[in-house]
Write a structure and sequence with these properties.
Blueprint lengths: L2 H16 L6 H11 L7 H14 L14 H9 L7 H13 L8 H35 L1 H5 L2
Helix pairs in contact: 1-2, 3-4, 3-5, 3-6, 5-6
């Protein structure tokens, strides 16, 4: 299952769980699919970020993300042992650490490190994808049907 399909499946479940207007589904799926594939951010980085967001929320990573990561990566993400990742991956994961629970504590240096690795467009896409992963995890924790289907 590719990342865009995974995002679309999450969108289907979310709309059904919340009883939202199904007419918005196509637009929402396209938006989520675009977040899963920012051109300047490698899929591995997005996957690491989503798995770290899940770990911060005390959740397992999304089923679609597990096969893409080695067991040692998943273990490091759960423990917050981020030093084993390369510099670009660490820059992206540093954004996760703040965006989920302390977005106003984000330093200019952290954003600059990310921009050096992924450019301005990649950094904005990455921050948006992290924010949506955070929302997805918060919903999985609060909506039993969403958690059961992930």
């Amino acid at each position: 299952m590719n990342a865009a399909h995974s995002a679309g499946a999450r969108a289907d479940r979310l709309l059904a769980d919340l009883g939202l207007d199904a007419g918005m589904l196509e637009h929402f799926q396209g938006f989520l699919g675009a977040l899963d594939d920012p051109p300047a951010v490698p899929v591995r980085v997005l996957t690491l970020c989503r798995a770290r967001v899940a770990a911060l929320h005390g959740l397992a990573p999304a089923a679609a993300d597990v096969p893409a990561l080695a067991d040692q990566d998943l273990d490091a993400l759960r423990r917050g042992a981020l030093e084993c990742f390369d510099a670009a991956e660490r820059a992206a994961l540093a954004l996760v650490e703040n965006l989920c629970f302390q977005p106003h504590a984000m330093s200019d240096a952290a954003v600059q490190d990310c921009a050096q690795a992924f450019g301005a467009e990649g950094t904005v896409g990455l921050m948006t994808a992290i924010a949506f992963a955070d929302v997805d995890c918060r919903l999985r924790r609060t909506l039993p049907a969403a958690a059961d289907q992930n």
